[in-house]
Amino acid sequence: IELTEAQINARIAEIQLETMQNIELTDVLVKINIYINSVLTKYCYIIKSHYLTADAGNLDNYNSKLLLF
């Protein structure tokens, strides 16, 4: 199959657009991943600190820790 220069250039432009969209999508996914990791880290810290306190049964103490993050 022979392609004209215009067809080749059009396909190159399509590939460049797809590449840019993939880069943008990757950027969004990385940001989502960072956000999820930070939230999980905060919750793990809260849970760990909650269970390490002497008054682990005190719900008010737990609620005050939730407000810290």
Rounded radius of gyration (Å): 25 Å
| Oligomeric state as shown | single chain
Number of strands: 0
The major β-sheet equals: none
Q: Which range best describes the helical content: under 10%, 10-25%, 25-40%, 40-55%, 55-70% or over 70%?
A: over 70%
Average pLDDT over all residues: 80
- What is the domain total for the residues? 1
* Overall spatial form: rod-shaped
Write up this protein.
This protein is an all-alpha fold and 69 residues long. The protein has one domain. The protein is 81% helix and 0% strand. It is built from two helices and no strands. Helix 1 packs antiparallel against helix 2 (59-66). The radius of gyration is 25 Å and the shape is rod-shaped. The termini are far apart.
Main attributes of the structure:
2 helices, 81% helix, 69 residues, mainly alpha
Write the layout of secondary structure elements.
Blueprint: H1 5-52, H2 59-66
Helix pairs in contact: 1-2
Summarize the structure.
The chain has 69 residues and is mostly helical.
